[in-house]
Design brief:
The protein is α+β, with helices and mostly antiparallel strands. The chain has nine helices and eight strands. It folds into three domains: about 10-130; about 155-205, SH3 type barrels, CATH 2.30.30; about 210-295, Alpha-Beta Plaits (2-Layer Sandwich). It has helices at about 5-80, 85-115, 120-130, 130-135, 140-155, 195-200, 225-235, 270-295, 310-335; strands at about 160-165, 165-175, 180-185, 190, 200-205, 210-220, 250-255, 260-265.
Length: about 325
């Protein structure tokens, strides 16, 4: 029978052996885990390396179709640019056709780059998420359709000067999604096409001629017909006034201090710069002509009826204030001396 010391030594040996076995098991498990991670990473790297030629081929295909879209736009412009009166239709063909070519190239590149990818799967995915996509891209699709309709209907062209809401300027570009205008103070404004298509739009340069007007007031003592003749003669001296349409001067009402006349004339170039220049020239010529003819252009005049008690009280109060101010000034002068 073993002694207690032998039993204790045997128990210690068993415990050490058990701990060693457990440690070896843990080390083996960790090694297997690390090995699995390394194998997975290695497989990913090898798969990526194997797909590199396909990815490069997909990029090359995408670049080729992008270049084909550019060539397509140039060919369309060369064939239709001089034959179609509405140049915006040429832009529609260019942009829609170019976008379609790039999309086809993208689909081919995806088939090459991704194994198992087919257009049917993409269409199925779009079908599943059509509701979400419809809500997310509603504004984009609306602007896209509005841009195509604007380019086809052509209410304005590049270079026209338009007014949309609070913005006025020259159209710089008409894109599928938005239209870019340059304001007269040199700012760029991007207006969504849906706003242009559904809102009121003013095209200042839609016609060759544009009518301008300015109000002129003459004195009640002046002869209206004589003043009218002088104003028409002044308009003949202004080279910005169109000679293809007769100007007009009509009396529009009795003002507080003047007889109000409305002067209207036409200009051949309806741009903002010519409009401002013509108004300035016409006002200068009218002022010169009326001054030379002795026609009065009065400023607002007020007549006070001193027999009215309320007016008397106001005048007396003003006199009292004036006298008080004079007395204060005299006292201050005496103190200074």
């Amino acid at each position: 029978m073993p002694t207690p010391e032998a039993q204790a030594a045997s128990a210690t040996t068993d415990s050490v052996a058990s701990q060693s076995t457990h440690s070896v098991t843990e080390i083996t498990g960790d090694a297997l885990t690390y090995r699995n991670i390394a194998d997975t990473a290695n497989d990913l790297v090898m798969s990526f390396v194997e797909r590199i030629p396909y990815l490069l081929a997909a990029i090359v295909v995408l670049i080729i179709f992008w270049l084909l879209s550019i060539v397509f736009k140039k060919v369309v412009y060369k064939l239709l640019g001089s034959r179609i009166h509405h140049q915006n239709l040429v832009k529609v063909f260019q942009r829609v056709g170019g976008a379609l070519i790039v999309f086809i190239g993208f689909m081919i590149a995806m088939v090459i780059a991704l194994p198992g990818f087919t257009p049917a799967k993409l269409i199925g995915a779009l079908g599943i998420g059509s509701v979400a996509i419809g809500f997310a891209f509603k504004d984009i699709f609306q602007n896209l359709l509005s841009g195509i309709l604007l380019l086809i209907s052509e209410p304005f062209r590049i270079g026209d000067q338009i007014i949309s809401g609070d913005y006025e300027g020259t159209v710089e570009d008409i894109k599928i999604r938005a239209t870019t205008i340059r304001t007269y103070d040199g700012r760029q404004v991007v207006i969504p096409n849906s706003d242009l298509y559904t809102s009121v739009l003013t095209v200042n340069t839609a016609y060759k001629q544009r009518r301008l007007q300015v109000a002129v007031g003459i004195g009640y003592e002046d002869d209206i017909e004589a003043a009218k003749a002088e104003i028409l003669q002044a308009l003949n001296q202004a080279d910005t006034v169109s000679t293809k349409a007769d100007p007009s001067v009509i009396a529009t009402g009795f003002g507080d201090s003047t007889i109000d006349l409305m002067v209207r004339w036409f200009i051949e170039d309806g741009t903002q710069a010519n409009k401002v220049a013509s108004i300035h020239q016409v006002i200068v010529e009218i002022k010169k002509a009326l001054d030379n003819a002795g026609v009065n252009i009065p400023f607002p005049i007020r007549t006070l009826d001193l027999s009215d008690p309320s007016v008397k009280a106001i005048v007396q109060k003003a006199k009292d204030q004036n006298n008080g101010a004079n007395d204060s000034n005299l006292n201050q002068t005496s103190l200074n001396k």
